[in-house]
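Re: the multi-chain job from yesterday

Posting the exact lines I submitted so nobody has to dig through the queue logs.
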Amino acid sequence: MAILSIAQNEDRARRHACRTLSEGGLIALPTETVYGLAADATDGRAVARIFEVKGRPRFNPLICHMSDIAMARRYVEFNAMAERLAEAFWPGPLTLVLPLKPGAAVHPLTSAGLDTLAVRVPTGFARSLIARFDKPLAAPSANTSGRISSTTAQHVAADLGDRVSLILDGGPAAIGLESTIVKPTDRGVDLLRPGGLAAAEIEAVCGVRLARPQEAAPAIEAPGMLRSHYAPGAALRINAQTAAAGDAVITFAGAALSGAENASIVLDLSPSGDLNEAAANLFDTMKRADEAATNEIVVAPIPNEGLGEAINDRLQRAAAPRS
Ligand code: TXA
Ligand code: MG
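And the result, structure tokens for all chains:
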């Protein structure tokens, strides 16, 4: 496995990535949300390799990454609401689930044979790579299925090792949480997955309240939406007020848990109480807590506003009973 630094030679990184993708290979690449494990979305064999490398138990639909709205239009239909959301938030951490155009070249394995496709336009290197490659990239998070998503190239290397031949290192992901997924419908807009773009920001643009996952039409059962997901090795308890000996404590805004003096480590997601900073630190902090815990990981309450909704979503899944 090779790690190429984007900062050192961006053009070389892009050329190398394009070559690997056109040969049907996989690359791990940074996006503003998390690192993705990417393949040419039109190449069924390459997409199948994604599922194999991640050890995903089933073929679930993947997000297709586009360079801009013009490219997305080649594959999906935009209604007025979709236009407005794309206009407001692309490039950025918003994924739209839209009707697939008949005959669109995306491989059915990418869309899991559905008649809709999840599309998003990432920022930065990923976007420029897609523009050069001129085909959409299917990319789930670059981690073994069920594990915590990777927010640095080092996390990807530690998790996937030689199962991926090329890792592009763009430093720590700026947002640190997967994109927010919404689906415009006849009735309004469904929130399929809270994520790196706060629901309130989307609501301000679309003018309607997003239907939350419990209220929305039951979407397909997908790994990020399984109750137990993002699971660290140690058991994890949320909304904790107390800590026991050997616990790894994850706190927020300096909140003190009683008994924390006997904890194996105390990590603060954001000492200043900034939820965006907490989101960016979440997955790395969970990994560090997991390494340090000899008992449980206990997490202080996190406010449920802004990106707190997505942070609590991921923590609830990490805390859910394992199957
Ligand atoms: O931030 C992100 O979104 C990251 C980075 C790499 O871009 N990608 C990511 O992809 O999280 P992935 O494959 O792990 O998430 C795909 C999720 C599925 O679990 C499912 O919930 C939803 O997207 N999805 C995809 N296609 C869908 C569809 N046609 N209908 C409903 N949900 C869909
Ligand atoms: Mg994932």
